[in-house]
């Protein structure tokens, strides 16, 4: 029996010791820490419900004190609330406030207190957008960021702004920084080229409390919706196949000119699709000990065109494929003794393809170099195929 009493006595001592430790700990709580009050919600009545939070300590309960600043600049008690949670929800009218949390121990005494934290409640008004600038971001402007200025009313120091892709294929486009004025917002947006989507975007601004408004019309596009370009190039010719050039017996005809006019109405981030008209004149004159063989070749073709841009739209590769017509002009033999043959002008249908590289030196001025293959089909003369080298300049407008 004595052994049983001794065990019970030891058990009661341990319980008493644990309660004593808990009491001592609750009497010496560290200072209560609050958290930044960024949480809020709108209730069914349209009221802004502010959520105040703080960190957990071993307290028996908490008391939240809220003071408001009056017209004289003095702090006066506005609200007190007891809770066992680590947050309270409260509706406050617009104005300047400060709040703190008191932690109470099991004896009902204050064991710790937080510092006063400032809080400003803005009037809950729908923001209004009157206009914005610029109207678009041009993907070929080569800018890594741009500033969007939105003007309106009911804008506060906490108003947020972002862009929303109408297609819904991208996450909201958020700014790097925001400067807020009395009736305007300047937001600096980054440009992530692999995430860009051409088209219209919504400008969405949101006031504290979730009240927001939307204006449509901001665009991500090219500086010009349609590109037109002209170029003129020096064009030497290298015979490649067929019997036509055997009459001339030369491996290179260095004199020739090529003029191009192109239009690209379909422009996307992956490239542009359009059409091209080409006119080319080649001098096929060759000399022999006995005679001179004179002749020029005039070619016209219409081509389908594909452009692919590089280096932030300062360079592009162009590929074309098409058909046309070629005619040999003024083709005759001039003999050394002065005799001349009759002129004749055989014609050919043509097929051709090739590519070029354009390098923009200054805005719309570019250098161009390329290589084309042309096949003369059956006509009133011998068919042949030849390569044309091009080197010239052009202008996009």
Task: Write a structural description.
- This protein starts with a helix and ends with a strand.
- It folds into 3 domains: 26-121, Immunoglobulins (Immunoglobulin-like), CATH 2.60.40.10; 128-221, Immunoglobulin-like; 227-396, Porin (Beta Barrel), CATH 2.40.160.20.
- Strands 17-19-20-22-23-24-25-26 form an 8-stranded antiparallel β-barrel.
- The chain contains 1 helix and 26 strands.
- The model is unreliable at 1-6 and 19-31 (pLDDT under 50).
- The protein has 397 residues and is mainly beta.
- The longest helix is centred in the first third of the chain and has 26 residues, at 2-27.
Brief summary:
With 397 residues, the chain is mainly β. It is built from one helix and 26 strands.
List the helices and strands and how they pair.
Layout: H1 2-27, E1 39-42, E2 48-53, E3 61-69, E4 75-83, E5 87-91, E6 95-104, E7 110-113, E8 117-121, E9 128-133, E10 136-138, E11 145-153, E12 160-165, E13 177-180, E14 184-190, E15 199-206, E16 212-221, E17 227-234, E18 237-242, E19 256-268, E20 271-283, E21 286-287, E22 291-310, E23 315-335, E24 347-362, E25 365-376, E26 384-396
Parallel strand pairs: 10-16
Antiparallel strand pairs: 1-2, 2-5, 3-4, 3-6, 6-7, 6-8, 9-11, 11-14, 12-15, 13-14, 15-16, 17-19, 17-26, 18-26, 19-20, 20-22, 21-22, 22-23, 23-24, 24-25, 25-26
């Amino acid at each position: 029996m004595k052994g049983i009493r001794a065990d019970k006595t030891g058990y009661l001592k341990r319980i008493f010791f644990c309660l004593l430790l808990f009491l001592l700990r609750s009497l010496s709580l560290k200072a209560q820490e609050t958290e930044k009050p960024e949480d809020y919600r709108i209730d069914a009545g349209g009221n802004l419900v502010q959520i105040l939070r703080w960190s957990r300590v071993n307290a028996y309960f908490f008391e939240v004190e809220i003071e408001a600043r009056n017209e004289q600049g003095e702090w006066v008690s506005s609200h007190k609330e007891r809770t066992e949670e680590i947050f309270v929800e409260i509706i406050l009218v617009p104005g300047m406030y400060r709040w703190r949390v008191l932690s109470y121990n099991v004896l009902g005494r204050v064991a710790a207190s937080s510092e006063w934290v400032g809080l400003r409640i803005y009037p809950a008004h729908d923001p209004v957008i009157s206009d914005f600038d610029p109207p678009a971001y041009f993907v070929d402007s080569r800018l890594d960021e741009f500033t969007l200025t939105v003007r309106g009313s009911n804008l506060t120091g906490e108003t947020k702004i972002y862009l929303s892709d109408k297609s819904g294929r991208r996450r909201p486009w958020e700014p790097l920084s925001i400067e807020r004025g009395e009736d305007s917002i300047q937001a600096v947006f980054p440009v992530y080229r692999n995430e860009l989507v051409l088209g219209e975007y919504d400008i969405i601004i949101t006031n504290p409390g979730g009240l927001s408004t939307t204006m449509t019309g901001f665009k991500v596009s090219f500086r010009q919706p349609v590109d037109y370009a002209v170029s003129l190039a020096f064009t030497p010719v290298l015979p490649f196949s067929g019997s036509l050039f055997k009459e001339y017996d030369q491996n290179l005809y260095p004199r020739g000119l090529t003029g191009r006019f192109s239009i690209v109405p379909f422009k996307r981030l992956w490239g542009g699709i359009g059409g091209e008209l080409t006119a080319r004149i080649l001098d096929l004159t060759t000399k022999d000990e006995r005679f001179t063989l004179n002749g020029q070749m005039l070619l016209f073709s219409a081509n389908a065109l594909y452009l692919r841009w590089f280096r932030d739209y300062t360079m592009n590769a162009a590929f074309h494929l098409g058909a046309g017509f070629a005619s040999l002009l003024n083709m005759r033999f001039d003999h050394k003794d002065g005799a001349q043959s009759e002129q004749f002008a055989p014609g050919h249908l043509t097929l051709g393809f090739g590519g070029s590289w354009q390098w923009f030196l200054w805005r719309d001025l570019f250098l161009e170099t390329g290589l084309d293959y042309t096949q003369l089909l059956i006509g009133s003369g011998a068919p042949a195929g030849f390569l044309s080298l091009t080197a010239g300049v052009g202008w996009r407008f």
